[in-house]
Amino acid sequence: MARRGGRDEHDAFARPSKRGSRPRTKQRPEHADAVVGFVTGVDRGRYTLLLAEGLPDERAVHAMKARELARTRVVVGDRVDVVGDTSGGKDALARIVRIGERTSVLRRTADDTDPYERIVVANADQLVIVTALAQPEPRTGMIDRAVVAAYDAGMDVLLCLTKADLAPADELRGLYEPLGVSVVVTATLADPASVDAVRERLRGRVSVLLGHSGVGKSTLVNALVPSARRATGHVNDVTGRGRHTSTSAVALRLPGAQGWVVDTPGVRSLGLAHVEVEHVLAAFEDLDEAAERCPRGCTHLDGAPDCALDDWLAASPDTETRATREVRLTSFRRLLASRTASV
Ligand SMILES: Nc1nc2c(ncn2[C@@H]2O[C@H](COP(=O)(O)OP(=O)(O)OP(=O)(O)O)[C@@H](O)[C@H]2O)c(=O)[nH]1
Ligand SMILES: [Zn+2]
């Protein structure tokens, strides 16, 4: 359900024609010489971009935002137009003049540590929820919430269950597959070949990796992108933090330009205050259709008066369909309920 493509606007920007089809206005300088860059890193107002991705003149450049974008946030995954010194030389500094329309926006809600709602990553296709099968024990409340955040953002979900050498995956698989979540099981250290299934699911896509400290996310990232050399190890008992000092997201390219993984070392939870039920519902075609007959403002939760999802279940044509629908509805309602659960 993640929308790929949608690059037309950017292609238009990249077109070298000086007589572009867009009107010139005084407010918005044309910047006909702008080129498109992909934001791979953000560090205190300094952006790292990849230009001419996949072309012979592909290069990384550093850039700042143009003054007119001072109040606009640029995040990892953004496609931006840049002007100025785009040569990619060591001291070259380009200028971001426009941000491309975003196909998806993964947000985190304001919380105790950060009073602002923020966009974490733009234009990602899928959220990879990295969860250990043991050490630490999986917490389904956290997984549910991440699924909600991804569906709200318009992203697919891949549940990556790590440390399969320590515990079986059947139970979690049974909980999440009915929600349309793809599941892969890995044992990165004991069985490096198990990572191939993850690689397969990442190919050609922009994927955000999200996981709690100690689940083996850095170990996985290092297996996927050996040049990344993410710090791995145990959690600091005193601070409760991992060894990472950086907290901003960074996009890492899979070998052979087979897609991007965005690591989010500082993001421990996404927060769901901004989530709209309708966005989550849209990820479930069958339920979405059935819910068209719900009363206005229906919460679709268990016991919601006249919720058409109950009628949809009751109208199952046979026992097998009923069993499938029941699992799906129960799982969906569990997801919705996780929005307001305290964790
Ligand atoms: N048994 C087992 N241990 C693993 C596996 N993958 C990683 N580990 C171990 O789990 C611990 C945590 O791994 P990391 O990769 O550092 O975990 P992380 O999720 O990046 O955590 P932070 O570094 O705190 O963000 C390390 O001691 C790893 O060696 C696995 O497949 N099986
Ligand atoms: Zn309803």
UniProtKB/TrEMBL annotation:
Boundaries of every EngC GTPase domain copy: 122-268
Region (Disordered), start-end ranges: 1-31
Compositional bias ranges of the Basic and acidic residues kind: 1-13
GO cellular component: cytoplasm
Binding positions for GTP per the UniProt entry: 162-165, 211-219
The keyword Heme is annotated on this UniProt entry: no
Skewed-composition ranges (Basic residues): 16-26
InterPro entries registered for this protein in UniProt: G_CP_dom, P-loop_NTPase, Ribosome_biogen_GTPase_RsgA, RsgA_GTPase_dom
Claim: Thylakoid is one of the keywords in the record: no
Keywords tagged on the record: Cytoplasm, GTP-binding, Hydrolase, Metal-binding, Nucleotide-binding, Ribosome biogenesis, RNA-binding, rRNA-binding, Zinc
Protein location: Cytoplasm
Subunit relationships: Monomer. Associates with 30S ribosomal subunit, binds 16S rRNA.
The protein's role, per its UniProt record: One of several proteins that assist in the late maturation steps of the functional core of the 30S ribosomal subunit. Helps release RbfA from mature subunits. May play a role in the assembly of ribosomal proteins into the subunit. Circularly permuted GTPase that catalyzes slow GTP hydrolysis, GTPase activity is stimulated by the 30S ribosomal subunit.
PANTHER family (UniProt xref): SMALL RIBOSOMAL SUBUNIT BIOGENESIS GTPASE RSGA, SMALL RIBOSOMAL SUBUNIT BIOGENESIS GTPASE RSGA 1, MITOCHONDRIAL-RELATED
Annotated protein name in UniProt: Small ribosomal subunit biogenesis GTPase RsgA
Gene: rsgA
